[in-house]
Amino acid sequence: MSLRVAHVTTFYPPHNFGGDGIGIQRLVRALARRGIHNTVILDTDAFTQLSSRAPDPAPTEDNVEVIHLSSSLPRLSLLAVQQLGRPVAHSARLRELLAPGRFDIVHFHNVSLIGGPAVWSYGDALKLDFAHEHWLVCPSHVLWRHGRELCTGRECLRCQLNHRRPPQLWRHTSLLERHGRSVDAFVAMSEFSRAKHREFGFPFEMDVLPYFLPEEVAAPSPPRPQERPYFLFVGRLERIKGLDDVIPLLREFPEADLLVAGTGEHESALRELGRDLPNVQFLGRVSEDALRGLYAHCEALVVPSICFETFGIILIEAFRAGAPVIARRIGPFPEIVEASGAGELFGTADELRAALRRALSQADRRARRSAAGRAAFAERWSERAVLPRYFELAARTARRRGKPELAARIETAAHGAPRG
Known about the structure:
By secondary structure, the chain is α/β, with parallel strands linked by helices. The protein folds into two domains: 4-212 and 383-414, Rossmann fold, CATH 3.40.50.2000; 230-381, Rossmann fold, CATH 3.40.50. It is 37% helix and 16% strand. The chain has 15 helices and 15 strands. It has helices at 19-33, 45-50, 74-84, 91-97, 156-162, 175-180, 191-199, 267-273, 288-297, 313-321, 333-340, 349-361, 363-381, 383-400, 404-414, and strands at residues 4-9, 37-43, 64-69, 105-109, 126-131, 144-145, 149-150, 185-188, 206-208, 230-234, 257-261, 280-284, 300-303, 325-328, 343-346. The longest helix has 19 residues, at 363-381. The two termini are 21 Å apart. The relative contact order is 0.11.
């Protein structure tokens, strides 16, 4: 009998903003290719209330069912979950969907606006919670205190007000601890994120399972997008992504361009910052095929985020395409860059300036780092490398919970060959 897996999430493509939703989709698709049936339970209210655009059409995929939840009073529904830490408008429907016996495994992915911690208690499946953000320990999810600095200690009430979010009542109760006991394994996306959760008092142990990407099908190298050398930035245009520190330096590199792939609420300020710099180009939203070409031919991917991220999917996207990385020395980036041997880190403007100069002047170094990145990706962050770790974690957790039959079925599924 095939495994039945549910994914409960606030965001899932195309109702999605950042990399966490795409990471969830990659896990769903990897399991589906191995004949495992996936049911994605998604609250679309969060996307529709926070987005200024309609979602793209969703594809129909084998072994993937997507169930959309929405409320006639979306703002009130979202506020109730945010304040109470439990589903209100969708409580009965979620209990029905997650009823005992319906699923073998339930994955919870950032349930902040679909059910809060209380949804962890629904059903009797094996339960894994994936910490795609720092929501478990931070009301603003990103450990960015007062909207202006890294969080090094709790000032949550003032911080929520500065983020223009109502303080969450449930965080002043034992709700997380009580319902967290229903979760069989909490999963961090990096060693850094696991340590940060521990530092901020998260009361449960965490396993580490990084994001992964499918290996690229052998194909001709994508065409070079332009003749001039260029650096690349990929991501949402928000202040915490640190691009404000990069754009001014392009005055010193008239021989190269900075291509910016992405959109976001900080875009107008960034465009103004680069208004008189013809070598800074804003590309907007870029298709996956176009992004492959941008990665493949850039001098380096620049990752200047100034906040504590949980991982950094764009780094492994770059490694897969053979692009070196220049990343800020913060959060999980040092462990990823140092493990790859495919880039360098910076902490100051002078270090960034020197790294950009080396990237332009040392072609042999780029070739070595390109090869190192591809090798590290295949060994550490490819679907082929990470998915066995997922199955091992799930089987070990099932045995610990006293479900040896489920553990055996998980191990059987782990040996299934992917299709397509």
